[in-house]
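Bumping with the actual sequence this time:
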Amino acid sequence: MGSQYKQLTLEERERIYALKEQGKSSRDIAEILKRNHRTIAREYKRNRYAGQEYIPCKAQEMSDKRTRTQRTNAPLKNLQVFLYVRVHLRMRWSPEIIAGRLKVDIPGESITPETIYQYIYGKGKKYKLHKYLTKSHKKRRIKTGRGVHKERAHSRIPNAVSIDKRPTKANNRAQVGHFETDLMEGIRSTKTALSVTVDRKTRYAIISKVKDKTAKNKQKVLQITLKTIQSLKRVGKPIVRSITTDNGSENTNHQELSQELKVPIYFCHPYHSWEKGSVENMIGRV
C-alpha cells in the first residue's frame, strides 16, 4: 500500500486561503505545501459552505464533523481500517492475516481478528463477507463445550504415547518436521478416503488416496510419503521428527510405522481432535 494519508490541518488551510488570495493555482499551492494537487482541489470543493467563499476555520469545522460521522458509521474503528479490512477480505485474506498485516501497512492502527469476525457475522452480515472466509460458513461456529464426551482415562489404541509427551518445539511450531495426520472421509458408503498429513510449522501438506480406511492401508500410505521426505534429510538433521494423530482404528499399526520411520508417534486425548488443529484445518480447506 502507499503512504498513509493525513488530513489537512488548520494551519495548512490558512496557508491555502492566503496563497489563493495571492492568485496562486491549486497546483502551485500543492507544490508549496508538499501536497497532491487533487487534495487542494478537493478541499475547495468539499469545505465551502453552500458554495460561499472559502474560510479556513469553517473548512476545519466541516472536516472535523465529517470525520466524526465517518467514525460513527464505520464499525471497524475508523474509515481507513474499515476499508482496509473490506478490501483484504475480498482478497480472501483471513481475519488473522489482516489483523497482523494492518499494523505493518498502516502504522499506528490495529485491530483484533475477533473484531473482524464480529463485523462479518454482525453489522456486515448483509454484505455476505462470510463467503470470502476459508470455509465460508454462513453462521459462525463457536466452541461452547456442549456435547463433549468425558475424557477417557486411556486411549483405545494399544501402547499409545500421549500428546503430553510431545516435544515443546513441536507444540510451539518452532521446528520443521513435526507432522499431524488424519483421514478425510466422504460419505459413509464410500470405502476410499484421503490421508492428509501436515507439517505443523510450514503447513506443508501431503494428500494421498487410500483404498480403504484400514490400518494397513493408512500405514502403507504414510510409509511411502514420509520415507520420500526423509530421503531428503541432511546428515544429522532429519526432516521427519514426529507424527501426531488421533485414536481412530486406522492408527492401530502405529508401532510398526514408528519403527519403520524411526520417529515417535503421539496420540491426542480421546475426543480432543482440536489438539491436532493443523491437519483438521487443512481437511476443512480441502
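The C-alpha cells above came from a reply further down the thread. Residues 10-72 form one domain.
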